[in-house]
Amino acid sequence: MFVAGDNIIYSASDLAAAARCGYALLRDFDAKLGWGPAVSTADGELLARTAVLGAEHERRRLAQLREEFGGAVTVIGRPAYTVAGLTAAAEATRRAIADGAPVVYQAAMFDGRFVGFADFLVRDGERYRVTDTKLARSARVTALLQLAVYADTLARSGVPVAPEAELLLGDGAVARYRVDELIPVYRLQRAISQQRLDEHYAAGTAVRWEDEPVRASFRCRECAEQLQAADDLLLVAGMRVSQRAKLLDDHASRCPRRWARATVPAAAGRRSRRHGISPTATGYPGQPRSADDRRGCAHSARKTLVWRTPSPWRRQPRICCRSGIRSSCPR
């Protein structure tokens, strides 16, 4: 994703990221614009290894197609990320299709706002089938979104597209999906994402996690950091996103966790005690505290239980791990 003139040019990966979490997408955009810090890359080594394995999977498929079609396979090299470079790559792809190439590898497409590179376009009669390789062993929504964006962009540029697109999964299985069922979902997602990016860039300020239009997922790494920093209601064990929304609608934004404890349904409290998690445990939602922070009764030797974090200003009474009632432990 980059800015060229007054336009934000985004890719299929950006649309997939927007589908996962709108906040994470805008955080990454802010970092590229210099409006905010770089996004955390704590799992960078894992992502790098995954990228290597994915490239190997893609090259194996390319080798199979070259064995089948020989030198007729057309390879579109990755261009410079400029408007001129992307336009030239898209034109090279259209020329290869017009010449009837049986396979186009790394087919480029660019419509002025969206840029994408389909792994393979395989000729199927008079049409071209969009084929993408994925290391995963099952299809994900984001992968189907990419198939749809490639098929729709090609069709809009005049390329005859096969009615089905396919995913070559990591275990060698091939999954096919009807393009006309995927495109409506993609068009809606693209319209929402493009509007969000345009409005954010026009505002000229860094994204804030608590902004309502951001549509945070509450589950990604960036959201988890904000949950901790804001002492958010979702840190309460058993709290659902829908419950949080109702509390915020009742003007309970950023309420003390001591008050939030009283709002958790009794069933949630029983469920959290049954799983050994306190209704006020800190950390990621549902994450138990370490053994050094445990505070319980005699029964806790036989059960892995986590209790309320000790208050900094008063001593916490003992709570029985069986009954959940204060000062009722046999010992």
Helix and strand string, N-terminal first? Answer: EEHHHEHEEEHEEHHHHH
Q: Give the name of the CATH architecture of the largest domain.
A: Alpha-Beta Complex
Coarse structural class: alpha/beta
DSSP helix fraction: 40-55%
Any overview of this molecule?
This protein has helices at 12-20, 22-33, 44-69, 83-98, 141-156, 179-203, 221-230, 241-249, 257-263, 266-274, and strands spanning 2-4, 7-11, 73-75, 103-110, 114-124, 127-133, 164-168, 174-178. It is α/β, with parallel strands linked by helices and 331 residues long. The protein has two domains: 2-203, Lambda Exonuclease, Chain A (Alpha-Beta Complex), CATH 3.90.320; 232-331, no CATH class. Strands 1, 2, 3, 4, 5, 6, 7 and 8 form an eight-stranded mixed sheet that branches. β5 (114-124) and β6 form a beta hairpin. The N and C termini lie far apart (62 Å). Residues 252-331 have low confidence and may be disordered.
In a nutshell, what does this entry contain?
The chain is of the alpha/beta class.
Question: What is the topology?
Answer:
Blueprint: E1 2-4, E2 7-11, H1 12-20, H2 22-33, H3 44-69, E3 73-75, H4 83-98, E4 103-110, E5 114-124, E6 127-133, H5 141-156, E7 164-168, E8 174-178, H6 179-203, H7 221-230, H8 241-249, H9 257-263, H10 266-274
Parallel strand pairs: 2-5, 3-4, 6-7
Antiparallel strand pairs: 1-2, 4-5, 5-6, 7-8
